[in-house]
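seq:
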Amino acid sequence: FAQPPAAKALIAADPKDPLMRGYGGPDTARERESGSGPGRPSPAPGVEGEVGHLETFGINRLGEPDLTGPVPSAADPSLYAPNQWPSLPGFRDAYLAYYAAAERLALQIMQLFAVGLQLPENWFDDKFDRHATSLAANFYPPRSTAPSVRLRKGEHTDWGTLTILFRGGSPAGLEVLDRSGQIGRA
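struct:
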């Protein structure tokens, strides 16, 4: 995220990419998270102003042919567009190594779910062997003044079965909205 704007622009996520692979700046985040548009949720009650004061970088497993194998003939080609990588030595290898570690952790958590549901430990294994998991890094730039808005990333629901968050030692910031509309910190 410390790269100059021109370098970030070279790997900007295509707005038409359903998997948001590449770099997304604050304007992109506001567009995707604003609550406007078909199928997008409205902002939480009492939340006004802009959202999306963050930068993102994302990849998807489907963008790495060596991880997914041949593309099924009936598949939407946009799902298999290649990931966009910055020209930083070792970055791709390090990011993919982290992805592999998170993937192993997710499979272990799914095994714990199976045990908790009184199923065989490996019950979920063949249900997730061809997953389409994304890995996104979010960067929340420091603020020099008090925030004028409450949200830095808009209210949303993660898609998929499981979300693993790595906070990196930063103070709590994730808020969870429960079904009754109460907000709690994670």
